[in-house]
Amino acid sequence: MKNKAAMYKLSYGLFVLTAKEGDKHNGCITNTAIQVTSDPNRISIAVNKANYTHDMVMNTKKFTVSILSEDASFDLFKQFGFQSGREVDKFADFTDCKEADNGTMIITKGTNAYISATVISTVDLGSHTLFIAEVTDGDVLSETSSATYEYYQKNIKPQPKPAAEKSEGKTVWRCKVCGYEYEGEELPADFVCPLCKHPASDFEKVIK
To answer: How much is the pTM?
Structure first.
């Protein structure tokens, strides 16, 4: 591919996908929820198999998608996108939520609507599973516009100061997802961002 950045020009919404298995609630950030039919009313979501939420949806066949709005804070993205539910309870001290009729959590702050659904079929896509689901419930929570991936990049994600101001000419590698900066002439090939857990391939050199 001549320029991977072309993929970033695709228009995405941003969502918190939540599931519940047993007594455990969990959620993750996704950008792949779309309506696929209106009659019957069905949506699809594609979820990375490495995500704990993926396994919960696969096992229970139930989920809720909370649609993130332009009021969403970066803390909300850190809460559900930069840590694993296998290691922490994301809902332990999180209060901006309520339980949906299907038992999963609705995120009530920084969102403008939610859609609950039941999985009716799955497609193995390799790294991801595509879930096709029947909509069982949904409501509008706010009239604030939905947050797109582009809006997140420009207005929600913290914008680091220019590296030259902070590093006095040192080489800096910046995470394109969350903005974390690593100082060093070379970024280790196996480096993983300590904030958002993205690999070295998602870093760019910003000063030389």
So the answer is: 0.81
